[in-house]
Amino acid sequence: MQFQEIYDRVLPLWGDTIDFSDGYIIQPEKKFKNLKKEADNSDYFYSKKLSNQWNALEAEIAEEDAEGRLMLWTMFQIYQQHARQKFEQNVLAFAPQEIDKAEIEEQFLKNVKEEEWEDE
What we know:
The protein is mainly α. The protein contains four helices and four strands; from the N terminus they run H-E-E-E-H-H-E-H.
């Protein structure tokens, strides 16, 4: 399946608005480690509304629809980045259609190359 087909199928699931009005910046006090790598000491943006929206959509996409699930994850990554930027400008929502499709495609192709997606 082509990127455009997957994109066109998943984009409407996000609805008209990405709302991150409950967002906030998390500033870790020190470095921490997870199983894969040591995280840096930079701050992070979090919005429960945005995360809940992603989780709800993930539940709608069939487990065997690996391409759809990867597109959803990719869109969440990009939307999270844009939400952070807009939040810092006191903008608390945006339309998913505002985001340049080329940016999503670039991230999607990076994600496809990740180890856990090799088989796809």
